[in-house]
Amino acid sequence: MKYDFSRKKKRDAVLDLLLIAVVLGICGFLEANKYNYSYAISIIERSMIYAVVAVSMNLVNGFTGLFSLGQAGFMALGAYVTAILTIPVSQRPSVYYISGINPLIANLSAPITLALILGGLVAAACAALIGIPVLRLKSDYLAIATLGFAEIIRALIAAPMMDTITNGSYGLKSIPGFSSIFQVLILTVVSIGLMVLLINSSYGRMFKAVREDEIAAEAMGINLFHTKELSFVISSFFAGISGGMLAMFMRSIDSKTFQVSLTYDILLIVVIGGIGSVTGSVLGAFVVTAGRELLRFFDEPLTVAGVSIPLFRPGFRMVIFSILLMVVVLFYSRGLMGTNEFSWDGIFGFFRRKRKAVKAEGR
Amino acid sequence: MNEVKENVLKMENVVMQFGGVTAIDGLSLEVNRGEIVALIGPNGAGKTTAFNCITGIYQPTSGVVSFKGENLKGKSPDCITRLGIARTFQNIRLFSNLTVFDNVLIAKHLRAHDNVFTATLRLNLKEEDRMRRETEKLLREQDLYELKDEIASSLPYGLQRRLEIARALATSPELLLLDEPAAGMNPQETQELTDFIVKIRDQYHLTVFMIEHHMDLVMQISERIYVLNFGKLIAQGSSEEIQNNPEVIEAYLGGSEDA
Ligand SMILES: Nc1ncnc2c1ncn2[C@@H]1O[C@H](COP(=O)(O)OP(=O)(O)O)[C@@H](O)[C@H]1O
Ligand SMILES: [Mg+2]
């Protein structure tokens, strides 16, 4: 028994190392040939950024059982803070050429990591303020309040009196990009890693207790408000980080980048991956981001035997996408992973079951 | 050996109204250290409401609830648990999708010294280790250790009740409130539960205040019994006194039970 156990551990460790090597290998290969694979790189980078915010949304919605829809707003805060702090000072006059730059921020700059963290902290601080009145109410109010908050943030960003800070509807450009795909990888792994550590800690257990039964959680000495606020604030911190990463990825942002549809995209990822599964969210981020690109085909005009098919026009891909989503939600409502997490045992078990099923059919 | 009774729980003239409904109407009672006291009465009498007033789920409309002399007015349920009152629920409320082990482990966090940073960065290993060891010990004492990896909702009903009691014990209470612990149990299970309640009272130095319908259980182990009807206290005393009280027989025992 004991021997078998440690052998399994060894096997898992070897497989873990192998997986890490493969990921690093792929990233290294792409980085070395980045001019040939810029499209693939951009899909992978966007997937990683979405994975961070999807896991953060899962932390609140999946693990704590709250229904928050403010992701786009918190991402916007993180993105703008990061952008304002990292656009090179020499380029600022040309970015803010319409209405000028507020002297307070004209020379304010920070290295990338610090800028991202500050962006996360601003998002977290706003979350704390919204949370104080709203988290004492029933969970439904949180959805409405956070949705409203995200729109208010967007309106503020585009408001004329903010022009010298956010550059209004012209948005911010010349945001320094990532130095390499490894930078995105490291930021993603560290962010998600911290959230996984949290989820598996004594505080993560309290989040789950609140999700399972609020009255019982309280009877076990868990302060509902503090616990919800903690989860909400930490989730928003990482949403802010991912917003900052998105700003660096896109190099230019404006208030339209952070519409409600962005939140819905993230929600989609969480649902498709499995509410309450971190690996599900990561997987979902890749599936949804890559799937969306593959479906781009439907946006191109299609001509079959000289007849142009009228359905195939820009926007049609979103229709297909929505239908696929509905199918998933209706027939596969637990998502790709349910509430399970990735494990090698799970993988082997999956294939063993598959093989058995095939054998059974063969008879 | 002086037998001075130390008062643990005291309710004085507690009234609880919901809109026009008066669920509890001037309830006064006392529970002393080390006692097993029962609260009985027909369905809808206000027993569970009384528990909810003690544990902070409801704030009484008027009257005072105090624990070891401390007024509980305005205190939240988690705060009251911290003071040393634990409870179970009439309709079992476990963390259904979590394991037996995690159900108890969560309750252990109440007395832990860590914060979200030390916990996330695993700088609280000593505390975490202590919580896990105590959980293991408690589960072994409660004969639930073999089931530690089972999902709570997958346990049979009787074991879910046992787990709920174990989870309450994990908060290290002085006063344990049990809301119909024998509900849905057959006579043999009820007898086991009866012995079990006495055992945990002695083992963990508890004071027990319970709501129960099974009269054999109540009569066997309760030092004192309070009888509630339509939110009002109609009788109190030892099991003999209650059994022979005509008003109680009329209100409660007369109908279905053959006491
Ligand atoms: N939250 C509430 N709102 C309105 N009425 C309530 C509430 N809780 C309990 N009651 C009422 O209080 C009365 C007593 O209920 P309860 O304490 O559950 O009775 P018991 O536990 O003795 O069977 C019932 O009439 C019930 O409808
Ligand atoms: Mg009741």
How does this model look, in words?
The complex is a heterodimer of chains A (363) and B (259). In chain A, a hairpin with a 2-residue loop joins strand 1 (302-304) and strand 2 (307-309). The mean pLDDT of chain A is 88. Chain A contains 16 helices and 2 strands. Chain A has a two-stranded antiparallel ribbon. Chain A has helices at 2-32, 38-63, 71-86, 92-95, 103-106, 112-134, 139-158, 163-166, 181-199, 202-212, 214-219, 224-250, 260-273, 278-294, 316-331, 344-362; strands at 302-304, 307-309. Chain A has a single domain (14-294, 332-362), classed as ABC transporter involved in vitamin B12 uptake, BtuC. Chain A has 363 residues and is mostly helical. Chain A is globular and about 70 Å long. With 259 residues, chain B is an alpha/beta fold. Chain B folds into 2 domains: 7-84 and 173-253, 3-Layer(aba) Sandwich (Rossmann fold); 95-157, no CATH class. Chain B has 10 helices and 10 strands. Chain B has helices at 47-54, 77-83, 100-108, 116-120, 125-141, 157-169, 187-203, 215-221, 239-243, 246-253; strands spanning 7-18, 21-32, 36-40, 62-67, 70-71, 85-87, 175-179, 207-211, 224-229, 232-237. Chain B has a 6-stranded mixed β-sheet, with helices on both faces. A 4-stranded antiparallel β-sheet of chain B has the order 2-1-4-5, covered by helices on one side. The longest helix of chain B has 17 residues, at 125-141. Chain B is globular, with a radius of gyration of 19 Å. The two termini of chain B are 36 Å apart. At the A-B interface, helix 9, helix 10, helix 11 and helix 12 of A face helix 2, helix 3, helix 4 and helix 5 of B. Magnesium ion (MG) is lined by residues 47-48, 90 of chain B.
